[in-house]
Each structure stands twice: as structure tokens, then as C-alpha cells.
Write a structure and sequence with these properties.
Layout lengths: L51 E6 L14 H10 L4 E3 L5 E3 L2 E6 L5 E6 L4 E3 L5 E4 L2 H12 L8 H5 L5 H5 L11 E5 L2 E5 L7 H4 L10 H7 L18 E7 L3 E6 L13 E6 L3 H10 L5 E4 L4 H5 L9 E2 L6 E6 L11 H8 L2 H10 L2 H6 L21 E2 L2 E2 L7 H5 L7 H16 L7 E7 L6 H16 L4 E7 L5 H6 L6 E6 L31 E5 L15 E3 H11 L4 H17 L3 E6 L4 E4 L30 H20 L2
Parallel strand pairs: 1-12, 18-19
Antiparallel strand pairs: 2-3, 4-5, 5-9, 6-7, 8-9, 10-11, 11-12, 13-24, 14-24, 15-20, 15-23, 16-17, 21-22
Helix pairs in contact: 10-13, 16-17
């Protein structure tokens, strides 16, 4: 399932680390149908005249074939020119798109979609080619699972669709056996290999997009080739009118689009420039672009300028969740006393003393000096990721206390209380004080070293150098994941995880048995054990865990995973498992990733919102503003969006 990582909403991958586990460390209106976010004019007014949005790009796409590609860079064109069966509105509520309605069988294995009959394929010049039908979805899915095509997202389809794996492995060769059928031109049926509660969200991935069989046959190997806009058909909000590699991409509003009234940009112009990051801020000041990232090295200059400050706002938070891991399988050098650490980390009071001692605001201020609280979280799953019965997952009863905690876990009094308890218990186990706490970091990741220094000073100052000795160590700039985190060469370290699909299960993966994060399954306290053992033949179980004691957290997660049809029960079970993990301080939740600051003449709160799939890459619903939002306007708009989203979820 890790291929799905590439389908995340966040366009910028995690700093210098690739991969999902890298280290730092309805019923609502459609996306564009409501007024711009903000109250009482907190958001700048829409610009007058033709809405042409201008920006730079520095990396050229290698293909326009959305059925083949596996990179976020190449998902953005597809998201805007090819529509999907469903879409997400600006509040993250699923809406009909190319499908007007759908239903599932009682066993959760069969999904039937009823398509609209007014969706059209058009050529790059806007002339109509033909209707979009159920057969186009069959064509697209068969292309993806055909091993001859080497689709980069085939494993996404193979993970859920009946017989997709077998076809890709050439165990069967009859594509009629693939779990997708066009009953007629406007009725589409998927058959799954197992009930998949998050299947609907997967339909916004590129591998489930439609493709016209006649056009593919006509183009042959040129289908989706990145040298001409003529190599694609278009059924989305925009079409590519001009595609000149390393020169210019021009997207224009698709007048044949079924929902064109909710497309407010007339044109998007992307101009190639290798130095886009460096030059864009200056080009914005010359009114040559409408979007520019403001790099950290010049951000203070902009924020200290009275005029420039008024157009700088944060990028929207991503759904990479950051947390500090306690390592239960230390394999670092003897100089850092791994045996002593192992005794300490297996004491819950010791872990809780560190949990409550960490001042999250101070730690985050190193990276985000203007609004650090805006990125802090008290749970592993970020707020606004998924909801059930109109309630955000992080507001479910088991987690709400962590979500609502204004200190995000920092409590000096509790830290001191747990320190006293831990010292009494650990002295009887001959633990040596101060306990050395090896905190490793990647020196190539901006500000990680500074953040570690702040944490060292703050936590040692609070708990005392007689109790802990935080030792900072720079790991290698390359292969940091394999040589440090996966090798267990840390005691306490900032780690992260990004979602693969729209379900809380995706955030439990780092602590599944044998995964290379922090090995909590090796915790020695009998209080965490269920009394059960892992049996031979358990699906997906590594042989080394046969006979091992089942931990309560893993059992809670397994019970949640087993609930396939009742989403409310499923989500509440996952919330209980996550709360247990935090309650016992196996980790310290910290923050979400953010890509810094920018100037941007469109508001992110008008665009489709989803932490998965490609919905959030769409410009449908976006409105060109007269000027970019300021930090204060952004915060007001975000606060208003939160309120409106809560109401939209409750109305489902």
C-alpha cells in the first residue's frame, strides 16, 4: 500500500527524506459553490476582470499519462483535467462528480455507481470527442493492472479490486475477470476482494480515473506523452490548451465541463524557470506571478516590511503527523548506555515525565516563530483528517481530551510528579542517573539541530541534569532512515508518518509488528499484555513473533481493523487504541508538517479539501483575489473554515 503515499495531497515531499515513514524527521454544496472563506471581509475580495492565475514551475513532468505516473508532480495536471466518480468539497465532504449516486451491497464487496449522462470528453482545442461512460472506467482500470503498461499505481488497485493481483501477476489472463463491469453506458460496478471501508476515498486517485478506449487505440504509445496537449482527452474542470515542455503550460476553463459554473479561474499559466524558488518572490513584486514561496532566509525581511507583511500567509498544514518516539529496541553504541536506557524506557512513569516535560510551543517556535500553536497536535491522527457521524475523528470521546488540551501535553507539575515516581522505581532496578537520552537528528534537515538544542536545554532545565542527560548526535545526511531510525540508533527521536488512505488505520502502520519505528511490541511491562500469544499461521505475521505475547495496543488495533462495515464502531475502536498508546506514553504527539510561507492570490479555503487522493490539487472552486491574504486574514479565514466545516460534517 505504500505506493499510495505518492497520492497525498501535499505536493512537497518531506524535506530530504523520501517515503511515507521518513524522518525530519454528502450534503454540502460543491467545492466552488459557496462564497469565499472568511467573515466580514477577512479575506481579500475577488479580482476584477479575467481570472488568469500565474505561477512558475521548476521541474518538468515526464508524462501526462495519469494511468501510468506515480509522482505528485504529475498528479496535479491530471487532477485538473480528468474528473473522478466522486470529489471532495472545500470542507472535505464527499460529493457526486461523474457519478451522481452509488450504493453498496450488505457484505461491502459490491459498489454500484450511477453516472451522469452529461459529461463529455473534449480535445485540447475544446472540440467534443464523445460522452464519458462507464466503459471508460473499465478501460482505465484494465490499463492499470495490465503488467505490460508498468503502471506506477497498480498496487493501489491490486490492494482492493477482485482479481487485480492475479491479472497483474499473469496468474489469469482474462481481463473480463477483473472486478469492474460496465452494466450499461451509465452503470458501473466494482467488486472488491474484501470489504474496504475507505474504498470511496480511493476513487479520487489517478488509477481510478476514466480513459477512452478509442482514443488510446488512436494514440498508441503517444497516449499521454508529455510533448503535446493533443495526446490527452479532457473531462475535468480545465483542459490543456498549450503544452510546451520547459517553456509554458496553459490550462483553460473547460466550457464543456458538467460543473463549469463552479470553475472561477479562466486560465492557469505555468511558466518554466529553474530558479523558481529564488526568483518568484521578486517576480511577485513586479506583478509577474500570483504565487511565490517565501524562503526561510528572506521571510524575516518580508515580515518586517510593513507592506510585504500584508501579503504573506502560511501554506496550509499537511497531514504528515510528527511525534517523538521512545525506542524499545536500542541498538546504539555502548557509550550511550543502551542497557540503562532500556530499563528506563520500560518504566511508564519515566516516559510520562518526559511526555509532560516537553514544551511543544518552544520546540516548534524554532521552525515557526509566528504561529507555532497552529501546527501543534495532541494526537497522532491530525484534526480534519476523517470524520464519522458528523464528528471529527480527533473529537471522538477517547481522544477529545487530547485534542482540546490548550497546552498540548506540557505540564511542569505533572512532569515533576512522574519524575519522583520514576526515580523511586528505577533505583530499585539499579538504573544509573542521569539517564542518557540519545537524541539523533539529520544535519541536512533545516532547523532540526536547533530544535534538538532547544529541547535539550528546556527538558534538562525542567527535570534536572541529575535525572536525564540528553545527548545530541548528528546522523548521516544520506541514508538517515536506514542507518539511524531503522537501525534503532536513537533513544528519543522526532519521527513522522503520512496517510495512505482515508481511514485511521493508516496511522497505525508505524507500530504494526516488526515495523522499524520504535518497537513498542517489545515493551516488557506485563501490564501491557493481554495474556494471549501470537499463533503460527496468523496472516501477515512474521515468524519471529510466533509465541510472543500479544500487547493490548496491537489487540485494540486488530479489533478496529476487523470492523469493516460499521464506520462509527471502527473509528471509535481506532480512537480507543490511539488513546491507549498516548495514555501510556509510548509516543509524544507533536505537530503537523507545514511547508512555510507564501504569497498567493488564491485562498486555499475555496479549493477542494482532502488529505488523500488528488482532490486538494484541484483549482476547481478557486477564486483569484485582488491581493494575497496576510497572516491575520489567513488565520481568520482558517478559523471561519473550521466552523463551517464542523457545520458541514454535522449536516451529513
Amino acid at each position: 500500500m505504500k505506493r499510495i503515499l505518492s497520492l497525498l495531497l501535499c505536493c512537497a515531499m518531506l524535506l530530504s527524506v523520501a517515503g511515507c515513514g521518513g524522518n525530519n524527521g454528502g450534503s454540502s454544496a460543491p467545492a466552488g459553490s459557496s462564497t469565499p472563506a472568511g467573515d466580514g471581509g477577512s479575506t481579500p475580495a475577488p479580482a476584477a476582470g479575467p481570472s488568469i492565475y500565474r505561477k512558475l514551475y521548476s521541474s518538468e513532468v515526464t508524462t501526462l499519462n495519469y494511468l501510468y505516473t506515480g509522482t505528485t508532480l504529475e498528479f496535479e495536471p491530471a487532477a485538473n483535467v480528468i474528473d473522478t466518480l466522486v470529489e471532495y468539497d472545500k470542507y472535505g465532504v464527499v460529493q457526486p462528480a461523474l457519478a451522481t449516486s452509488w450504493e453498496t451491497s450488505e457484505d461491502g464487496l459490491t459498489w454500484t455507481f450511477h453516472l451522469r449522462n452529461d459529461a463529455k470528453w473534449v480535445k485540447s482545442d475544446g472540440t467534443e470527442y464523445g460522452p464519458v461512460t462507464a466503459h471508460d472506467f473499465v478501460t482505465g482500470l484494465r490499463w492499470v493492472v495490465n503488467p505490460e503498461n508498468q503502471s506506477k499505481t497498480s498496487d493501489v488497485v491490486c490492494s482492493v479490486i477482485a482479481n487485480a493481483d492475479e491479472l497483474y501477476a499473469k496468474q489469469i489472463t482474462d481481463f473480463e475477470q477483473l472486478g469492474v463491469k460496465a452494466v450499461d453506458d451509465y452503470t458501473l460496478v466494482y467488486t472488491l476482494k474484501a470489504p474496504t471501508p475507505y474504498f470511496l476515498s480511493m476513487l479520487t486517485y489517478v488509477c481510478f480515473m476514466p480513459a477512452n478506449a478509442d482514443f488510446i487505440a488512436e494514440k498508441g504509445d503517444k497516449f499521454g506523452a508529455a510533448d503535446s496537449a493533443d495526446n490527452l482527452l479532457y473531462c475535468g474542470a480545465f483542459r490543456i490548451a498549450d503544452f510546451q515542455p520547459q517553456v509554458l503550460h496553459t490550462f483553460v476553463k473547460n466550457d464543456a465541463y458538467w460543473d463549469k459554473d463552479n470553475v472561477f479561474l479562466d486560465e492557469i499559466q505555468e511558466t518554466f524557470n529553474k530558479e523558481a524558488v529564488t526568483l518568484a518572490p521578486t517576480m511577485y513584486q513586479r506583478d509577474e506571478v500570483d504565487y511565490a514561496v517565501i524562503p526561510a532566509d528572506i521571510l524575516p525581511t518580508w515580515m518586517n516590511d510593513s507592506k510585504l507583511k500584508e501579503v504573506v500567509s502560511p501554506q496550509r498544514n499537511s497531514y504528515y503527523s510528527y511525534f517523538f518516539c521512545f525506542n524499545f529496541d536500542p541498538r546504539f553504541d555502548a557509550a550511550y548506555e543502551p542497557d540503562n536506557w532500556l530499563k528506563a524506557v520500560n518504566n511508564e512513569n519515566f516516559r510520562k515525565s518526559l511526555y509532560y516535560a516537553l514544551d511543544r510551543v518552544k520546540a516548534k517556535t524554532v521552525e515557526e516563530p509566528y504561529n507555532p500553536e497552529g501546527q501543534l497536535i495532541g494526537t497522532v491522527v491530525p484534526k480534519s483528517f476523517v470524520s464519522v457521524d458528523g464528528v471529527d475523528y480527533t473529537d471522538l470521546p477517547a481522544l477529545k481530551g487530547y485534542t482540546d488540551d490548550p497546552t498540548h501535553g506540557f505540564d511542569a507539575a505533572k512532569a515533576a510528579e512522574y519524575k519522583t515516581k520514576a526515580m523511586e522505581e528505577l533505583k530499585s532496578q539499579n538504573v544509573t542517573f542521569p539517564v542518557k537520552v540519545l537524541m539523533s537528528y539529520n544535519p541536512s534537515t533545516a532547523n532540526w539541530d536547533k530544535q534538538c538544542q532547544i529541547i535539550e536545554q528546556q527538558m534538562e532545565g525542567l527535570l534536572g541534569s541529575d535525572y536525564i542527560d540528553i545527548v545530541l548526535e548528528a546522523g548521516p545526511s544520506t541514508n538517515f532512515l536506514s542507518e539511524v531510525r531503522k537501525a534503532g540508533k536513537y533513544a528519543l527521536m522526532l519521527c513522522n508518518w503520512g496517510p495512505d488512505y482515508a481511514d485511521p488505520e493508516t496511522y497505525t502502520d508505524p507500530w504494526s509488528l516488526g515495523f522499524t519505528y520504535s518497537w513498542p511490541e517489545l515493551a516488557t511491562d506485563p501490564a501491557y499484555e493481554t495474556g494471549e500469544t501470537y499463533a503460527a499461521g496468523t496472516p501477515g505475521l512474521d515468524e519471529k513473533f510466533v509465541g510472543a505475547k500479544v500487547k493490548t495496543y496491537n489487540k485494540l488495533v486488530d479489533e478496529a481493523k476487523a470492523e469493516k462495515l460499521d464506520l462509527s464502531a471502527r473509528y471509535n475502536k481506532f480512537a480507543e487504541a490511539e488513546a491507549y498508546f498516548i495514555d501510556h506514553a509510548f509516543i509524544i504527539p507533536f505537530a503537523v508538517k507545514n511547508d512555510g510561507y507564501c504569497v498567493n492570490k488564491i485562498s486555499p479555503f475555496d479549493r477542494p479539501f482532502a488529505p488523500f487522493g488528488v482532490s486538494s490539487l484541484k483549482f476547481k472552486g478557486a477564486r483569484l483575489l485582488d491581493k494575497p491574504m496576510s497572516l491575520e486574514e489567513y488565520q481568520a479565514a482558517e478559523e471561519q473554515w473550521d466552523k463551517e466545516r464542523e457545520a458541514a460534517l454535522a449536516a451529513q
